[in-house]
Write a structure and sequence with these properties.
Layout (H helix, E strand, L loop, with lengths): L5 H93 L2 H74 L6
Length: about 180
């Protein structure tokens, strides 16, 4: 039997074709697997990108809030600075007023020293007032007597007036005759 010289070449080529096909199938399977892994990783990256965009948005809003808070804090600190200046001015004014406390204290000490003497003087004045009151009561009694005397004098004056009228009547007739 004779062997065809092409047979081993055909067998080698067939085997090489099968091996190549197996290799291609295996590569194709690896490519599909790699494509699935790449697709899965891409989906994960898209999800991660969405989450990152969300976090960047939240961070942006938080940073805007922080900036607004800092602006508000600056305005409030400016007001506090102005208020503190006013407080400092008031404290200076108060300090100037407090400096008057030393003379006031000295005057209060002098008043404290004078008060017992003033009390004694007031007691003397009180005693004098009692004496004046007694004198006034006596004078009031005397005034009653004077009032009676004045009443009598008024009565006398009234009689005298009538008498002058009676005398004036005839005198009035003589007056035109008398020289001035």
């Amino acid at each position: 039997m004779s062997v065809d010289p092409r047979t081993p070449i055909v067998q080698v080529m067939a085997r090489l074709g099968r091996e190549t096909q197996l290799h291609l199938d295996e590569r194709h399977r690896h490519f599909k697997m790699t494509d699935k892994v790449i697709l899965f990783i891409s989906v994960l990256l898209v999800i991660l990108a969405c989450v990152n965009v969300y976090y960047v948005t939240v961070l942006y809003q938080d940073l805007n809030g922080i900036v607004d808070n800092m602006d508000s804090m600056y305005r409030n600190l400016s007001r506090v600075d102005h208020d503190m200046d006013m407080v400092a001015q008031r404290v200076q004014t108060f300090d100037r007023h407090i400096q008057f406390m030393t003379p006031i204290t000295a005057h209060m000490d002098a008043i404290t020293d004078i008060m017992p003497q003033l009390h004694a003087s007031m007691s003397l004045i009180g005693n004098e007032m009692v004496s004046v009151n007694n004198d006034m009561e006596q004078m009031s009694g005397a005034m009653g007597g004077i009032a009676q005397q004045m009443h009598h004098m008024t009565g006398g004056m009234s009689i005298m007036r009538q008498n002058v009228h009676q005398i004036a009547g005839p005198m009035g007739a003589i007056n035109p005759i008398l020289p001035n």
